[in-house]
Amino acid sequence: MKRLGEMLMRPEAFSEIVMGNTALARAMIEAGARVIASYPGSPTPEIAEAIGSIPLEKRPFYFEFSTNEKVAAEVAYGAAVNGRLATVFFKSVGLNVALDTVVQLPLMNIIGGLVLILGDDPGANSSQNEQDNRRLIQMAYAPVLEPASPAEPYVFYKEAARLAREKRTVVILRLTTHVCHQKERVAFDALPIHEVDDRPRFDPANGPYIPITARVFPLKRQALARLADFREYAETSPLNRLLPGTDSSRGIIAWGLPYLSLLDVLEDAPQKPDILKLGMVVPFPRRLVADFLTHHAQVKILEELDDVLETEIKALAFDLSLHTRIIGKTGLEDWMGEYTPDKVREVLARSWPDLVPARPPAGTPEPEELRPIPARPAQMCPGCGHRSAFYAIKKALAGSDITVADIGCHSLGFLPPYEMGQLLMCMGASTGMAAGLSLFNQTRRVVAFLGDSTFFHAGLPGVINAVFNRHPITLIVMENGTTAMTGHQDHAGSGRNFNQETEKIPIRRVLEALGVQSIFETDTYDQAKLIDLVRQATALDHFSVVIARHPCMLKFTREQRRKAGHQPRQVAIDPEKCQRIHECVQVFGCPSFQIQEDGRVVVNTDLCIGDGSCRPTCPAGAIDPPKVVAEAKGEGGR
Amino acid sequence: MKAFNIHLTGVGGQGIGLLSEALLRASDHAGHRVKGVDTHGLAQRGGVVTSRIRLGEGVHSPLIGRRRADLVVSLERHEAGRSAREALKDGGTLAYYDTSWQPMEVRIGGAEPFSSQDLQAEADLRGIQVVRVFKPGLVDARQQNMVLLAHIVKRELVPGVGREHVRQALDDLMAGRMLQENLALVEAEWA
Ligand SMILES: Cc1ncc(C[n+]2csc(CCOP(=O)(O)OP(=O)(O)O)c2C)c(N)n1
Predict the structure, then answer these.
(1) CA dist list (Å): A470 to A413, A456, A477, A515, A561
(2) CB-based burial label for A514 (10 Å; 0-12, 13-18, 19+)
(3) Best CATH choice for the domain B4-190 from the list 3.20.20.140, 3.40.50.300, 2.40.30.20, 3.40.920.10
(4) Cβ neighbours for A558, distance < 8 A, ≥ 6 positions apart
(5) Which one of A2, A178, A554 has the shortest CB-CB distance to B63?
(6) Interval B35-50: pLDDT, tens
(7) Which residues on A lie below 8 Å from B39 (Cβ)?
(8) Is B191 part of the contact surface with chain A (CB cutoff 8 Å)?
(9) pTM of the shown model
């Protein structure tokens, strides 16, 4: 078996099939990174999984999951001004949280060097929007590199680290979902021997590190001057490349994943335009681009999401009085979604219909009468404590009450059959929105939900506000002991951090200390109690909190399965007792129950984990207690 | 070899990731240039998950155009139907494990389930070769991916990828009892 941890630490050069995120972990080791911090969010958590595959005592750097992205950026910055090469990574919207710190970074003299890795998500595969972070970064005057294939994050990170160290600043590596997750064989260099010098090197004389009023200006001037340096670097950077084609009248400027899509599309084009493939996009190489413009009658800018470079390149052409026809975005659709090969084909065909000949259809048209196959949105897992919570909470509330969701697995409660959580914004927003909804509102009770990782991440200010400003809402903390949605990372309430056991920070005690007067708690499987507590809490005229607790059953089941002698259990329906009320399938909605054509309910043996959370929900008492599954068992889902 | 595109799909939790990693590595052992990508993140919670594998020359992006897959592999019947419609070219091959995880809409009574007859009828219209796999009495649902893998290779659905390449791929990915059990599962289908 090839072991990831061993591979990442291998001293000699080698090649292996890895995804972009894994390649990044090796790059960090080769570059001599010393401190790395993050907060989980797709598409980046696999970087941490790769790091975690190296046993703690062999790991050549310190890694932590911080409580949120802003703190992670601050930890990395603190380490870097103390002389360590540091890195912070998080998902797209994480930058919104970290921005207050990140906008300051380019002002500072970061002696150890800092690399910020952003995992943007065009296509909103796992995010609440598809924001283009290049826009936010423009405000900070920081340079941005954008890799395309899995080998590029590896090469680009090492270059980013070198630049960050040399120029004592922050360099940003912007990845997108399918750059992070794409796999191919990557050739890795041998591990350089690093002389580790951990003497603390922080010295205010390297600063100033205090941006206050008039002192801001020298810092801003220095940031702008550095950016100008980076512009010079971009002109000759090996990260930008010119690829000559066969049609010299037309050129295309591309980078990142859209560049790979472009190459795919051009595979069957009779004439291939020249391509300027950028690696450094902010600041972009002005002379290189101007030269490219000058040598082509028409240039297409193939830009995913926003028109950041398009605007700048057009301004450049204006300044230089160039007459090249520059083709940027041509309509709303060009601003949306991931630039997959199909999308790039459409985008190109709109401007240059002759370039990409219509392909023969690969499939017959779908017959009109084709019945749609029912959609399959993500849903809560069998045994999920959030399901039990929603099932009970729905019973305790009136239909006119307002429920406010937050980010996490419990966001999925907005779907039928629960329809719990009617508004969703971003991490930690539920309590504040609920407070606003409760103003001038005497008739509809307002209930907010909040996951436990989110409680620590960005939830606390909203909770404190509800106490401080006396908002009469009910907050239900959906405590499952982990950051479930992003792959079960530990948080401040878990009792473990990335590296060792720690003291749990109990949510109840935090709430008590904040002065929350009415705190209720129960395991969500105790349906009668949870219904009763929610009724009590929502009847109060002041802020109340219900802690609705159950461990994440996906995590729990995986851990159980790994134990020797583990015996899987499942429930079964007693056909004698079942009255075909279908409460289990249609209202409780555990995916393990399926309806047969004749109306019988069966347990899908592929799915049931024998948690028994369904049992109290059957009005006929027809769900038998979980039993150990016999060796050769049923037919799965039929 | 010119590009050969494989679209793999299933429901989050079924183990499509392992199946796709094994097939990707087997293709690499067979000497192909390979690219792949899996779904991570939100969809893994009981939603539709997809992986893509692309082999051969002239392959740049790991993504495959609509109905440009030569082979669709699915661990679930509804997803087999969906992916055949969205990803598979006419005349391509669909290999699926015939289990059904009813989507919520079916369970709450708003939609009809999709049957293996429905699937076959659509495939016939489009000249799609269907390889249906089902093994009664499997101890654990998470073994279905290995059974399907065994049949994909037994029927030589991926050019040049043979049994020895699968053995090597599994050996890359697992060890000890897990390796023995999975090899035994696969070999049993080959016997
Ligand atoms: C600012 C920001 N960072 C990270 C994420 C990614 N993210 C989505 S869900 C989630 C998990 C929240 O965990 P928790 O609150 O414990 O809820 P659970 O999923 O465990 O139910 C995270 C971190 C995000 N959406 N926004």
Answers:
(1) 27, 21, 18, 11, 46
(2) middle
(3) 3.40.920.10
(4) none
(5) A178
(6) 999 988 777 788 999 9
(7) 125, 181
(8) no
(9) 0.97
